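Re-run with default settings, no changes from the original entry. Doing this only to confirm the output is reproducible before filing.
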Amino acid sequence: MSQYHTFTASDAVAYAQQFGGIDNPSELVSAQEVGDGNLNLVFKIFDIRGVSRIIVKQALPYVRCVGESWPLTLDRARLEAQTLVAHYQHCPQHTVRIVHFDPELAVMVMEDLSDHRIWRGELINNVYYPQAASQLGEYLAQTLFHT
């Protein structure tokens, strides 16, 4: 059984090597924290060629920008992981794949979607995606009906 501790970049690499589902885990050599939020640590894990291969995301037990005076439950990571696994079962074409989840460490390993764009930013920049409505509709129909 693991005991919760906040990951460093090297912890994230070691964890990805063990649980990332990569054929040659020793090729995973570095991590960069990319989280811009207040609730989680998010690490991109890179291989020896500098290609981002997988994401390690860990829930923090507090609001990051405030500190430990604003505690949060780590169980939210379990809820997120379970939801994503269920949604992936019913709509894999529009849901990130969870490779591994550890409730004790509140950490999940997931596929890297670096080639995707964050829709919020695209909307702010007035970028139009003609398939967005049908894709969102398909996702909502499949996940809401089946869960």
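Residues 9-116 form a domain with the Phosphorylase Kinase; domain 1 fold (CATH 3.30.200.20). The radius of gyration is 16 Å.
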